[in-house]
TrEMBL record:
Residues 133-255 form the CRAL-TRIO domain. SUPFAM superfamilies: CRAL/TRIO domain, CRAL/TRIO N-terminal domain. It comes from Drosophila arizonae. InterPro entries: CRAL-TRIO_dom, CRAL-TRIO_dom_sf, CRAL/TRIO_N_dom_sf. This is Alpha-tocopherol transfer protein-like.
Length: 308
């Protein structure tokens, strides 16, 4: 249909066989979502077709699950102002982009496969960034994926995190409460399905924190975390060719990827400004109101972990 971007034959097969997508039924599915949104006094959401179809695909075309995920998407963003409030493509966000700490690789894991994203802390601390800066940038990029990346929406994402240059001071910044919140958002709030998280060259101090953070996440997410001693071990699961040139692969040069990402993200300035118009008002929610404690369950229980 004209409102929705055409997809490749490979992605079409995945959408129809794995996600239960029926192209002829899309107009009715979108209308049903819009009709439901019109009846939610507490929820103000975007309603363009490309945005809504991402939630239908992310929920395998279960209308009830798509409704729930849309509600959680805006509810969790409202409940996590430290990550989502007042986001803009300012100098700090652009600097995080230029550092190349978090990049979306151009070639997915096969023509109809998941999008691969790489985190590398090599240039992170030298620029004076904090982990919260990275989380704010990552969630901005996530929303771009929802709107523009059909591989990510239909086949999910694979996250590769190279921790070889992650310092002890950065490990000490890990806020278990915030990690739990990010896990809840990834599970309940985003239509992008996380297919796997691969931690490589992980220092022993970080393993302790990450295992604790993982234990607080939903069981489905816990099972998708994998730890590898080195890149060679990772390559047994994700062949080297899918890594960027700097890692001995053929999946783009990080400098080129970063330059393109900067241009792409600058084009999202208006989108980020518009986001302040959307969200939830718990005072208007029919039935029981949601709170941070009911959503995350650990408010006040954890703070930044002390590292001896």
């Amino acid at each position: 249909m004209a409102e929705i971007r055409p997809i490749s034959a490979e992605l079409r097969q995945v959408a129809e066989t794995e996600l239960n997508e029926v192209p002829s039924r899309l107009p009715d599915d979108l209308k049903a979502l819009r009709d439901w949104l019109a009846k939610q006094p507490h929820l103000k959401a975007r309603q363009d077709a490309q945005f809504l179809v991402a939630f239908l695909r992310g929920c395998k075309f279960s209308l009830e699950k798509a409704k729930s995920k849309l509600d959680y998407f805006y509810t969790l963003k409202t409940m996590m102002p430290e990550v989502f409030a007042n986001r803009e493509m300012d100098e700090r966000n652009i600097a995080v982009c230029r550092a190349g700490t978090y990049v979306r690789l151009p070639k997915p894991f096969g023509p109809g496969g998941p999008r691969i994203q790489l985190t590398d802390y090599s240039n992170f601390e030298s620029n004076g960034f904090k982990l919260i800066d990275l989380f704010r940038y990552q969630t901005t990029l996530l929303e771009q994926l929802v709107r523009e990346d059909d591989n990510a929406v239909i086949s999910g994402t694979i996250e590769i995190i190279n921790m070889s240059k992650m310092s002890l001071s950065l490990v000490a910044q890990m806020d278990i409460s915030l990690i739990k919140k990010m896990g809840v958002f990834a599970d309940k709030g985003t239509p992008i399905r996380l297919k796997g998280v691969h931690l490589v060259n992980c220092p022993k101090e970080a393993i302790t924190v990450l295992n604790l953070g993982r234990s607080l996440m939903p069981a489905k997410l816990q099972s998708r975390f994998h730890v590898h001693r080195n890149m060679e071990e990772l390559s047994q699961i994700i062949p080297r060719e899918y890594m960027p040139e700097e890692y001995g692969g053929s999946n783009g040069r990080i400098a080129d990827i970063v330059a393109q990402a900067e241009q792409d993200m600058l084009s999202y300035s208006n989108y980020l400004k518009e986001e302040s118009n959307y969200g939830v008002d718990e005072q208007l929610r029919p039935g029981k109101r949601l709170t941070a404690d009911s959503l995350f369950g650990i408010e006040g229980s954890f703070r930044k972990l002390d590292i001896d």
